[in-house]
Write a structure and sequence with these properties.
8 helices, elongated, mainly alpha, about 190 residues
Length: about 190
Amino acid sequence: MDSTRRGMDPAKIFTLLFIASEETFFAFLIVAYIYLHTFPVAAGDPTAKSALDPVKTGFFSLFLFSSSLTFWLAERAQRKGDLVGLRLWLVVTIIFGAVFLVGQGNEYWHLYQQHVTMGRDVFGTSFFTLTGLHGLHVFLGLTAISVLLSLTGHRSLWKDHSTALECVGLYWHFVDLVWVLLFSIIYLG
């Protein structure tokens, strides 16, 4: 029996439940970040305003935000049966996500040179926890997209993996949405 007749695909249900658990996890971390940053900081301790460069991070963020569009274009190509388009947009998505991670690594290196570390103070701890966990999610998403890309090399295998593309797409769009919130709260807030 076709899964559309039975209701939602179990893989999509699992993916949505996983995303819901991750939303809860990030929500608690964001609330903790906001709460901890309502207290005055000791003189000389770094703050988001003094230590971060929202313009530079905003530039790298554009790549991550654009990767949601390129993933959507990959999904669209897959629905049209355009295997070349699917591969192209998956590769572009991977490149854009990787550029974002390079930007994050660059920012971490710059902060380290300023002696802003995870163990220094509340700002360092909360900043690196939030952005580091998000970066891990980006890396895991890029790994999943790379696996999907490798499956496109086997036309007979690919027919059975359209649900996988949809599930990874849900995850990837979630990762982008989380960054919209984190960027707004940490860099612009």
